[in-house]
């Protein structure tokens, strides 16, 4: 952990920004880099039904461009003194985060918890829980 970079997934929420602060502090303490990641959902559609005026690929590309702009804005909020690599991936958030962590041999994942409870917790996929249970490296879940 102490020599490998930190993966910090973000959905650009306030809670995720809080997790980014933790990741930046840890990266500065251990003198490692950060991989700041956002996962864009893969849009669904079928061109045969003529429902969409644009293809799902074009929708995804637009979402990726918007995410890249949000990444720049997020990084401008923090006074980063070390290397921050930004990554935008497409697909299931849990799968993409775990795959990226393994591919790049990250030392730790710092991820935000949205703190859902009750019915909302039951109905929504909890990305932080999925990542924590599937990761092969330490995971810090920030509230």
From TrEMBL:
Q: State the coiled-coil residue ranges.
A: none
Span of the secretion signal?
Answer: none
Q: Which SUPFAM superfamilies did the record assign? A: Adenine nucleotide alpha hydrolases-like
The superkingdom listed in its UniProt entry is Bacteria
- InterPro entries recorded for this chain? Rossmann-like_a/b/a_fold, Universal_stress_UspA, UspA
| Domain (UspA): residue spans on this chain | 4-143
- Entry similarity comment: Belongs to the universal stress protein A family.
Q: What is this protein called?
A: Universal stress protein UspA-like protein
Per the UniProt entry, what species is this protein from, by scientific name? Shewanella psychrophila
């Amino acid at each position: 952990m102490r020599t490998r970079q930190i993966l910090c997934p973000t959905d650009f929420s306030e809670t995720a920004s809080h997790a980014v602060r933790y990741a930046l502090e840890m990266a500065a303490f251990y003198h490692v880099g950060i991989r700041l990641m956002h996962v864009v959902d893969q849009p669904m559609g079928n061109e045969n039904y003529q429902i969409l005026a644009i293809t799902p690929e074009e929708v995804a590309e637009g979402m990726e461009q918007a995410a890249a702009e949000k990444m720049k804005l997020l990084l401008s909020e923090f006074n980063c003194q070390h290397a921050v690599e930004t990554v935008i991936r497409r697909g299931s958030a849990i799968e993409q985060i775990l795959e990226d962590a393994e591919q790049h041999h990250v030392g730790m994942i710092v991820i935000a918890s949205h703190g859902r409870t009750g019915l909302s917790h039951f109905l929504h996929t909890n990305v932080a829980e999925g990542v924590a249970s599937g990761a092969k490296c330490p995971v810090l879940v920030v509230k």
